[in-house]
From TrEMBL:
SUPFAM superfamilies: Cytochrome b5-like heme/steroid binding domain (SSF55856). Belongs to the cytochrome b5 family. Its main location: endoplasmic reticulum. This is Cytochrome b5 heme-binding domain-containing protein. GO terms for cellular component: endoplasmic reticulum membrane. Keywords: Electron transport, Endoplasmic reticulum, Heme, Iron, Membrane, Metal-binding, Microsome, Transmembrane, Transport. It is found in: Endoplasmic reticulum membrane; Microsome membrane.
């Protein structure tokens, strides 16, 4: 499919119910005809107009049927600009994974340090009482 590049200005120009583009996964969809049929209501989609709707869309956990609907509304790829950084497929989740690992490591250390000190204390008591 030869894809047109949609600029940020174009995306912003279509942010009303009369004409509405939605940006999902770096692709742009014309959802004007669909918004009245959206099971989640029109407000939620309108709230994402002119910005990257990927996160909102994925947070809801849309079904495969919902994703299949997108195919017919696809109008082009989004031209990435500094004005609007799109969220890549995995950037946000890999970031939170890194945070989770850091937190996990931190809490492991929180258990390990007092336990090691307790062990050292008993070892010290054992050895010092044995030597007297
Ligand atoms: C623009 C493309 C979109 C399409 C084609 C779409 C399609 C659908 C479909 C078919 C459903 C029914 C449940 C399902 O099959 O998953 C649904 C539900 C829902 N959608 Fe979307 N949606 C879109 C965008 C959005 C956006 C940007 C939001 C923002 C938060 C949103 C929020 C919701 C919510 C909250 C529901 C649940 C409604 C309920 O269960 O009462 N949708 N959508």
């Amino acid at each position: 499919m030869a894809s047109k590049l949609i600029t940020y200005a174009e995306l912003k120009a279509h942010s009303t119910k009369e004409s509405l583009y939605v940006l999902l996964h770096e692709k742009v969809y014309d959802v004007t005809k669909f918004i009245d049929e959206h099971p989640g209501g029109d407000e939620v989609i309108l709230a994402e107009a002119g910005r990257d709707a990927t996160e909102a869309f994925e947070d809801v956990g849309h079904s495969d049927e919902a994703r299949a609907l997108l195919k017919d509304m696809y109008i082009g790829d989004f031209e990435k600009t500094d004005e609007l950084k799109t969220k890549g497929p995995s950037s946000s989740s890999s970031q939170s994974n890194a945070v989770n690992t850091a937190v996990e490591q931190g809490s492991n250390l929180m258990y390990f340090v007092p336990l090691a000190m307790l062990g050292a204390y008993f070892a010290w008591r054992y050895y010092s009482s044995g030597s007297i």
